Amino acid sequence: MIGTNFFDIQLVDPTLSEVGVAIDDDAGVCNVLTADSPAEATIFSDNQGTSAPNPLTFTDGRIKFFTNASVSTVDITIMTNAGRSVFIKGLTVSQHRVVIDSNRRDQVALIPFAASDATEVDTGFDIPADAIIEDCYLLVTTLDVGETLDVGLLAAESGGDANGFLILAGVATAGVSTGYATVNDGSTSDFFDAGTYGALLASQINGSDAAATSGGQVREFHRTDGVARSISYTGSSGSDTAAGFIVLHYTLLG
């Protein structure tokens, strides 16, 4: 036996009862993170130090894991099988309920990413059918100068597009990295630089400082089909330090 802390959390839906009814979910996922960091925490399935997967899957809407005794606080990011997302900051062992509002359609998922050297990474988070993906951007916490990140739907799935949400998004500066094109004050004409939204979220033409080549960008939404559903990211070749969160805004229709 090793010194551990035990986290035991039940998902509840307050819309079904004054005290909240336990949610029965055996397919949703929870990513356990180091407090104030996108880095995955080391977790165990028992107090003997048996390694546990991270992200882990719910059992009857319940999340159970152990950490080293020195770890009393973690952050967790959750996506239920129905696509409802919640991020809990500073979870302690004394907290045993997470509220999931089944009536709320608008969702924001925070999905951690790490350095990925030209390798597509399946995050373990799956978007259900009939979700409208409205926006995707990065919250970069650890920069990686000269590198970029693609975000999309796992290429191995039918209809998957590994850079459908973001393509060559910058990770060289800490903070928010969006896919919007930049407007430039050209000497001949104003023009748009390349935006980094992928083909599922925008239609765009790169402009230049020349007459009649201003370029432009039109935002689009993507409706999921439940087949291409796994959120993935791919770092550029040489990426070795980038870290942060993929921020995904979407509306559930189902």
Would you mind describing this structure in some detail?
There is one protein chain. By secondary structure, this protein is mostly beta strands. Helix content is 0%, strand content 48%. The protein has strands spanning 4-13, 21-22, 29-34, 56-57, 62-68, 73-79, 85-92, 97-99, 106-113, 120-126, 131-142, 148-153, 161-170, 175-177, 183-184, 191-192, 202-205, 216-219, 222-223, 230-235, 243-252. Strands 9, 11, 14, 19 and 21 form a 5-stranded antiparallel beta sheet that branches. Strands 1, 2, 5 and 8 form a 4-stranded mixed beta sheet that branches. The protein has a 4-stranded antiparallel beta sheet with strand order 4-3-6-7, with no helix packed on it. A hairpin with a 7-residue loop joins strand 1 and strand 2 (21-22). It is globular and about 65 Å long.
